[in-house]
Design goal:
about 240 residues, mainly alpha, Serine Threonine Protein Phosphatase 5, Tetratricopeptide repeat, 2 domains
């Protein structure tokens, strides 16, 4: 028997196209799908993938499930806390990191992350205390030195800010951020010629620091808005 498809082929093709579009859309827009058999590590990997895509609500949901399934995993709490920080949820980030530190008070990544959250939240004394403890545990901790420099600068302890920025630059010689922090602290400490020289070293590492507009990116590196303005003063005097 021969079945005629005359008059029905185009509607079927159209329907298939619609279904294909809906399927592709679901791959990009679907909420995280959790199953009873998904492990804590799988949730963590899923959360990290969502975070890389800057899909923070989905990332946070997956990472919270990872912590729920394996609450004694300190690293998972740190990953959740840092993701909350990236999403701008500083209070929730601090709580997650606080729990991580309660579990393991010598866990340097947790201390580094907590110190950064304290810094950007304006809790400068806490930032100094946490990063100082992290340095006692890991003396070559360039993250702690760098963020201590920013905290000391905001506390107007310029000598300490210069010393810690200089050490961060030694430990991470290819990163211009410590050099900009050092130059800023030297400028505000009345050491303008030295500040200009150090800022030029930062430019040699990253020529984008010749562009004043690029300095706004320093807020992503922990600088406050006032500190960005301080860096702009050094920029203006350095003939960039």
């Amino acid at each position: 028997m021969i079945i005629s498809l005359s008059g029905s082929v185009m509607p079927i093709i159209h329907l298939c196209n619609v279904l294909a579009i809906l399927l592709l859309g679901s791959l990009f827009l679907a909420k995280p799908t959790f199953t009873a058999t998904t492990s804590a590590s799988e949730y963590r990997e899923l959360g990290l993938r969502y975070r890389q895509q800057e899909r923070f609500p989905e990332a946070i949901a997956a990472l919270e499930k990872s912590v729920e399934l394996d609450p004694q995993n300190t690293s998972s709490r740190v990953v959740l806390g840092w993701t909350l920080h990236l999403a701008g949820q500083e209070s929730a980030a601090a709580e997650s990191l606080r729990q991580a530190i309660y579990q393991d008070w010598v866990h340097v990544p947790a201390l580094n992350a907590m110190g950064i959250v304290c810094l950007v939240s304006g809790n400068l004394d806490d930032a100094v205390a946490v990063h100082s403890w992290a340095l006692m545990l890991q003396p070559d901790n360039e993250v702690a030195y760098y963020n201590l420099s920013l905290a000391y600068h905001r506390l107007q302890k310029y000598d300490w800010a210069i010393a810690t920025a200089r050490q961060a630059a030694v430990l991470e010689p290819n990163n211009p951020h410590p050099l900009v922090a050092q130059a800023m602290a030297q400028w505000d400490n009345g050491q303008q010629p030295e500040a200009q020289q150090v800022y030029r070293q930062a430019i040699s590492l990253d020529p984008r620091y010749r562009d004043r507009a690029f300095l706004a990116e320093l807020q992503e590196a922990g600088f406050s808005s006032d500190q960005v303005q301080a860096a702009e003063r050094v920029w203006a005097a350095s003939g960039s």
